[in-house]
Write a structure and sequence with these properties.
137 residues, mainly alpha, two-stranded antiparallel ribbon, extended
Length: 137
């Protein structure tokens, strides 16, 4: 792997929707997850985990769920209409690109699913008095 600068990475990032079916080596997945767990979080809570899905049947089930969500998202995008910063052709390509991903996501050899841990708010009595007055938990 070639090292690139932070700004090279930011300026060259693209949303890839055409996925290769080639197996992904374990060391690549490990490196990606190692980078992901270093993302900042409030209070350094790190209240997430990742599920790595390689099994074809499990990927197929997840894709069915994703497809339902994407149909809802598609309707929301259509209801909002074209964003002002896009012309009609850009918006058409944007919508088609998303639809392609929705239709072909199951072809990816592995899915990395980020998951948030359920966190409950702190008990009201543990908060400073100034916050207890506005806290509804």
């Amino acid at each position: 792997m070639t090292d690139i600068t932070l700004f090279d990475a930011i300026y060259s990032a693209r949303a890839l929707r055409r996925l290769k079916p080639d197996p992904v080596p374990e060391e690549i997945i490990t490196r990606i997850l190692d980078a992901a767990i270093r993302a900042p979080s409030a209070g350094n809570a790190q209240n997430w985990g990742f599920v790595v899905v390689r099994d074809m049947e499990q990927r197929r089930k997840l894709v069915m769920i994703y497809r339902k969500a994407s149909d809802i998202a598609s309707e929301i995008y259509k209801a909002r209409g074209r964003p002002a910063h896009m012309n009609e052709e850009q918006y058409r390509r944007f919508m088609m690109s998303g639809a392609y991903l929705w239709d072909h996501m199951g072809e990816a050899p592995v899915l990395l699913i980020p998951c948030l841990h359920d966190r409950h708010p702190p008990p009201r009595a543990t908060l400073p008095p100034s916050l207890q007055a506005i806290y509804e938990g």
